[in-house]
Design brief:
The N terminus is likely disordered. The protein folds into 2 domains: 30 residues; 114 residues, Immunoglobulin-like (Sandwich), CATH 2.60.40. The radius of gyration is 24 Å and the shape is globular. 15% of the residues lie in helices and 43% in strands. By secondary structure, it is an alpha+beta fold. This is Secreted protein. Keywords: Signal.
Length: 150
């Protein structure tokens, strides 16, 4: 009887240690999300913009909204560029109550530029633009950018 209790105690103690170790594995392995800052350069009379994204102060990429055709760039077009090999993708979105257009580099190795996401919009439609750093289900975004136009 004493040996059986001793064995049960040993098994329970070993199980508790194993569970404790497995719960601690990876506890500190998830990297904290970067702090996102942005710079904007407007063109085409303020209707178009290039938003540069910085992750913890380091250049991460850019999102461009091009309202009107310019050279080989189409109008009413959105593009994202990931220039930082940091594991975070770049996503840009323009919206209004009836429009949703998004470009994302998620899933592509850096450096990567998306194709232009296009479609004709009614002239002078005002749009909200947002930019994000994305990694899996994580997003770090700036939703406080000035509006752009089509």
């Amino acid at each position: 009887m004493f040996k059986a209790r001793s064995r049960v105690s040993t098994v329970l103690a070993a199980t508790a240690v194993a569970v404790g170790l497995s719960m601690g594995v990876g506890a500190g392995s998830a990297a904290a999300a970067p702090r996102l800052t942005t710079d904007t350069i407007f063109y085409q009379d303020g209707k178009s913009v290039v938003v540069s994204l910085y992750a913890d102060g380091k250049y991460a990429g850019a999102v461009t909204w091009n309202a009107d055709p310019l050279g080989d760039k189409p109008g009413d077009a959105l593009q994202a560029y990931d220039g930082g090999a940091d594991g975070w993708g770049v996503m840009g979105t323009v919206t209004d109550p009836w429009i949703y257009r998004s470009a994302s580099t998620a899933g592509h190795a850096s450096p990567y530029t998306t194709k232009w996401v296009t479609g004709d919009l009614t002239e002078d439609t005002w749009l909200d633009i947002s930019v994000c750093l994305v990694k899996g289900s994580q997003k770090v975004c700036d939703y406080n950018l000035p509006r752009v136009s089509s």
